[in-house]
């Protein structure tokens, strides 16, 4: 049987499978595309193959391992970026293996490459005072200032991701009791989030000031009436973070990025006793395991867990069953 070339599978993977059958977001597809662009760049730089002569055998375990090392050592990529590129290659191999079982052995080699563990960074978040002070920074008497205020307020209140904010249309916000915003997250999953009357009033004032009323119109736009970019959102937030930091340096990290507000909302919900399951749904996480990072990073919450565990201790000591021992160990691993 004549083996098909790598380009054949790549074409159908990107044009048919990812967007249609898998239903992945544009950003994820772009990330996968970038992974292959870098992989081809590595192959050319290493003198392994020319792009116009790529066979499926090119995607072998040795080439992929060397590519991953090249990303870290030559390009200075983080371990997280390295793992993302590997995930893209694995997703492609999974597709190829299903489409052409004769390529399974080749794909199995890539499947066996393990992700690289990175030191877990502490979650950066702002205290309530820092969020309140940050919201005072924009000039609400100017169209740009009220836009920036509305953006910061909504990012915090809804805990939305940057892309969810950028994709937001006027029709996604319901100005009624209760006020809500409909967010479309990863995998096109939709969730409805309540927002306060104050936040809703700020957003309404901004839309009125900017003359935006069409339900299909993007909520947050630049001076050219185009949707804000990810870098545009980051610039706005860091600008006000810089101003706030000058007056209250103890409240802010060296740089504010949009995810800080998402982290902050999650931590404040957790600190107020909101269940992790609700926070998972609020943030749009696929698993509560992802949400548990917030429970692990706060020393005060750890102390509360330990106190709760201590309150369960009685004067009578009974021998633990095996299942109770396993449950206790699992609880400690999760919370401490």
UniProtKB/TrEMBL annotation:
The protein, known as: Tyrosine recombinase XerC
SUPFAM superfamilies with a match to the protein in the record: DNA breaking-rejoining enzymes
PROSITE patterns linked to this entry: CB (PS51900), TYR_RECOMBINASE (PS51898)
Organism per entry: Sporotomaculum syntrophicum
Primary role: Site-specific tyrosine recombinase, which acts by catalyzing the cutting and rejoining of the recombining DNA molecules.
InterPro entries on file: CB (IPR044068), DNA_brk_join_enz (IPR011010), Integrase-like_cat_sf (IPR013762), Integrase_catalytic (IPR002104), Integrase_recombinase_N (IPR010998), Integrase_SAM-like_N (IPR004107), Tyrosine_recombinase_XerCD (IPR050090)
Lineage: superkingdom: Bacteria
Coiled-coil blocks: none
Residue stretches making up the Tyr recombinase domain: 121-307
One GO BP annotation of this record: DNA recombination
Pfam families: Phage_int_SAM_1, Phage_integrase
A molecular-function term among this protein's GO annotations: DNA binding
Keyword DNA-binding set for record: yes
Gene name linked to the record: xerC_1
Signal peptide region: none
Family stated for the protein in its record: Belongs to the 'phage' integrase family.
Keyword entries, A-Z: DNA integration, DNA recombination, DNA-binding
């Amino acid at each position: 049987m004549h083996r098909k070339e790598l380009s054949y599978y790549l074409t159908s993977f990107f044009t048919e499978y990812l967007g249609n059958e898998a239903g992945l977001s544009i950003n994820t597809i772009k990330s996968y595309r970038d992974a292959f662009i870098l992989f081809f760049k590595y192959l050319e730089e290493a003198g392994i193959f020319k792009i116009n002569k790529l066979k499926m055998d090119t995607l072998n375990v040795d080439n992929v391992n060397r590519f991953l090392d090249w990303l870290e050592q030559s390009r200075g990529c983080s371990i997280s970026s390295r793992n993302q590129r590997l995930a893209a290659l694995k997703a492609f191999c999974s597709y190829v293996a299903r489409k052409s079982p004769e390529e399974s052995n080749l794909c199995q080699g890539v499947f066996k490459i393990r992700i690289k563990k990175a030191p877990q960074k502490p979650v950066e978040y702002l205290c309530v005072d820092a969020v309140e002070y940050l919201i005072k920074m924009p000039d609400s008497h100017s169209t740009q200032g009220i836009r920036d205020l509305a953006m910061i307020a909504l990012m915090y209140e809804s805990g939305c991701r940057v892309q969810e904010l950028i994709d937001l249309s006027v029709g996604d916000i319901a100005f009624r009791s209760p006020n809500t915003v409909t967010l479309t997250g990863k995998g096109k999953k939709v969730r409805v989030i309540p927002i306060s009357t104050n936040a809703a009033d700020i957003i309404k004032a901004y839309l009125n000031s900017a003359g935006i009323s069409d339900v299909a119109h993007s909520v947050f736009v630049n001076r050219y009436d185009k949707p804000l970019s990810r870098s545009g959102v980051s610039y706005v937030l860091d600008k006000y973070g810089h101003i706030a930091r000058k007056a209250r340096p103890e409240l802010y990290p060296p740089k504010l990025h949009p995810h800080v507000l998402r982290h902050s909302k999650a931590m404040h919900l957790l600190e107020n006793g909101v269940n992790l399951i609700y926070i998972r749904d609020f943030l749009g996480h696929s698993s509560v395991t992802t949400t548990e990072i917030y429970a692990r990073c706060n020393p005060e919450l750890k102390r509360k867990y330990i106190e709760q565990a201590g309150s369960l201790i009685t004067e009578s000591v009974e021998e633990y069953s095996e299942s109770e021992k396993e449950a206790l160990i699992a609880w400690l691993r999760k919370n401490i």
